[in-house]
Design a protein that fits this description.
This protein is about 50% helix and about 15% strand. It contains 10 helices and 8 strands. One of its GO terms (molecular function) is phosphatase activity.
């Protein structure tokens, strides 16, 4: 493959920049169980079972999946009420307990000093939540206004694995897919970036040690061209893409 002139790095947020997935799923489990009870569904969830089922999807995406699985329909007003409630619950948890993924701040600071790449956040999560996450850990200074949300930034809200949010981010930034690299930790996020034509670096650092090999395969199967265990490997992964070796 020919070398690539990479100009832009597109970072997922949850469990890629900020350790937020466990907090978020813990926060929304009670709301989802309330919905299950209200609609007569047999299923009940905990934060950990939600992660296994829906990692990489936003709350709206989870609700779509639940409705499809169990054949029920939520009225628009009901869905929007729960979306707002979930945002408030999760944001409160993130503001109290959010932490950066290990090693990512050093990578972001180096990229900022070098000024070789434009950087943006491209997330499924609501814009309020994404901004609360990166502000809590002090990463907002690296991205400015280049923060994009599949739940908020699009004319019609959606969720990864739909590639719409990546396509939108590239349009706003004036970039083409072959000059971008996405960094993702989930199957749905990796599919989203790959379907937008972007080379994806998979990241399995937040997963338990005994799950990393399994998740590496999941991300590679979803389209990640290279997978890193730790942010210390990012520079090497990026060089592989730029050289055209992957």
């Amino acid at each position: 493959m020919a070398p690539r002139n990479i100009t832009t790095l597109l970072f997922d947020c949850d469990n890629t920049l900020v350790l937020s997935e466990e907090l978020a799923f813990e926060g929304c489990a009670d709301l989802i169980n309330e919905i299950c009870e209200k609609h007569g569904l047999p299923e009940r969830f905990t934060g950990s079972t939600l992660i296994k089922e829906f990692v990489g999807q936003n709350f709206r995406g989870m609700m779509t999946s639940l409705q499809e699985r169990y054949g029920f329909t939520m009225a628009d007003a009901e869905l929007e009420d729960y979306v707002r409630r979930e945002e408030d619950v999760v944001i409160a948890k993130l503001k109290a307990h959010g932490l950066p993924c290990p090693g990512v701040d050093d990578v972001l600071a180096k990229l900022e000093r070098e000024k070789k790449y434009e950087m943006a956040v491209v997330s499924s999560s609501a814009l309020r939540r994404v901004k609360a996450s990166i502000e809590k850990v002090g990463q907002d200074k690296f991205f400015g206004d280049s923060v994009f949300s599949a739940a908020t930034s699009l004319p019609k809200p959606t969720s990864k694995p739909d590639p719409a949010i990546y396509l939108h981010a590239m349009e706003v930034l004036g970039k083409k897919a072959d000059e971008c690299v996405a960094i993702e930790d989930s199957k749905s996020g990796t599919l989203s970036g790959a379907r937008a034509g972007i080379k994806v670096v998979g990241y399995v650092g937040p997963y338990e040690d005994d799950k990393r090999a399994e998740m590496e395969k999941v991300l590679r199967d979803a389209g990640a061209v290279v997978v890193m265990q730790d942010w210390a490997e990012f520079e090497s992964c990026l060089k592989q893409i730029e050289s055209g070796s992957v």
